[in-house]
Amino acid sequence: MVGAEPPNSANTSSDWQSGQVSVSGGYLAYHRTGGSGPVLVLSHGLTDNGLCWSRLARALEDDFDIVMLDARGHGTSSRLPDGAHFNAGRDIAEAVEALGLRTPIVMGHSIGALATATFAADYPHLVSRVILEDPPFVPASDLSSRMGRKEKFRLQVLRLQSMSDAEITQMGKEATPDWHDDEFPAWTLAKRQVDPDAMPVVFPLWQAVIEKILVPTLLVYGEQARGGLVTPQVAAEAMRVNPRVQSVEVQQAGHNIRRENFPAYLAEIRKFLLENKET
Predict the structure, then answer these.
(1) Buried b / exposed e across 153-167, counting CB within 10 Å, b at 16+?
(2) Between 88-98 and 111-122, two packed helices, what is the crossing angle to 10 degrees?
(3) pLDDT per residue as tens digits for the range 136-163
(4) Considering 17, 110, 200, 236, which has the largest number of Cβ atoms within 10 A of its Cβ?
């Protein structure tokens, strides 16, 4: 199933298209800028939605046909069935195929970056280039710790969803005063839409994922002192595991790199795409 409808959510430009595509056991919602440039598929992080990429999409839409996916359990995509496990990388692959996209560039943030890397590793014939924004390339933890984090996340989401939109936005602005005002409409909406059980418990070994990627890959990370997950040591290990990977540290940014230092982030993205342009 591929369905399209006029866009109707926060931050959507008037000429963007919105719709849904079927994936195993459900569907993903998407927003698409259109255009004749190369296709760029964007996968967001935990508690966000596809429109949380809007500021970047507006900066790049003249050069790319951008598809912003709502991950399962986020935005207006399928909810999470009780006790069900799903493969976020497979969801991206099935969306790419359902939309008829030919070897798009794929890019993700945080959990979305891990899903993007998994997609690129498992479906090498469907991807041309990869960009990963501060994925959770962290040491494995025991099941008890992971379940504890999941329950804490669930309670945080429920607390957020008991608040008004104005309260959510105000909380966000106080916690992240360096974010542009354009970030908050979609960010606030996304907090209302996220499934309280959306935090995954099972994570693949990131080294095993990254080594399987066969196309040029950019790992973008921020400063650990500002909350970044990827460290210079992890970035060096990723490049050792897979020589197709290059990395760049963006200063004055932490985990949400594009939101905390948008000009530097955008410059690095454009540089990578230009240097690795398909001929």
Answers:
(1) beeebeebeeeeeee
(2) 70
(3) 999 888 889 989 999 999 999 999 999 9
(4) 110
Point out the least confidently predicted range of 73-87, 101-115, 150-164.
73-87
Q: Where are the domains of the chain?
A: 2-142+201-275
Contacts of 184 (CB under 8 A, 6+ apart): 169, 172, 173
Which of 4, 17, 22, 18 minimizes the C-alpha distance to 94? 22
Which residues in 65-120 belong to E strands, given as ranges?
65-69, 105-109
Question: Contact at 8 Å (CB) between 18 and 5?
Answer: yes
| CA proximity to 230, closest of 245, 248, 242 | 248
Please tell me the predicted confidence (pLDDT) of residue 7: 46
Residues 6+ apart with CB under 8 A from 273: 105, 129
Domain 2-142+201-275 has CATH 3.40.50.1820: yes
